Amino acid sequence: GYRLRLCPTAQSVHRWRDGLKAYCVQQYGFGYGRVDLVAKHPGHITGDRVSPLSMMSHPVLMLIALLMLGTAPLIAPFAAAAGASSSLALIVPAVLLAALFLERAMAGVRAARRFRDPAALLFPVVHLVRDVVWVAAIVVWLMRRVGRRPAQPSSSMRPRPAPRPVRTDGCM
Question: In b/e form, how buried is each residue of 7-32, taking b as 16+ CB within 10 angstroms?
Fold first, then answer.
């Protein structure tokens, strides 16, 4: 029953949480929410301008790599019995992880140059942590769906108190 109104002078503040734990909590919420969005609107699986397909594929590729690493000890004997290298079960996920790392490293170098900020060189490490957290969100989301548990806003993110906005632009 609410009406939306365009206010071209409106501004927002994007606040990242301080510390690794808080960052992971925030990213879990983003990942869970993104899966919820794609489930409701499958056309968004390829991403958008903020999170293009390359970014959307990161957690999926991380999930595949982690599953392959987890099953490598089980697959190795079968690979060896078939005459294939038993290390193949480790090579494929290692290549996936290296590709994810290199893609983010290139983005970090571009950002470091563009903004003259060497902190952007941490992109690969931070982003791989983000990918693992998104994998956890995907797994929890899938488990809740399989268990037919209803979606709740708190499933994706615990709310935190926000300061009340101060209106200075005259938009209401």
Answer: eeeeeeeeeeeeeeeebbebbbbbbb
pLDDT, residue 106, reads 95
Question: What is the rounded CA–CA span in Å between residue 139 and residue 159?
Answer: 21
Listed as ranges, residues in the chain with pLDDT below 70 are 86, 151-172
Give the pTM.
Answer: 0.75
What is the Cα gyration radius of the chain? Answer: 20
Question: Could you tell me how many residues make up the chain?
Answer: 172
| Best CA proximity match to 34, nearest among 16, 12, 50 | 50
CA distance 4 to 72: 52
Q: Which long-range contacts (CB under 8 A, 24 or more apart) does 15-22 make?
A: 20/129
Token pair of 130 as six digits: 């983000």
What single-letter amino acid sits at 2?
A: Y
Q: Using CA atoms, how far apart are residues 76 and 17, in angstroms rounded to an integer? A: 42
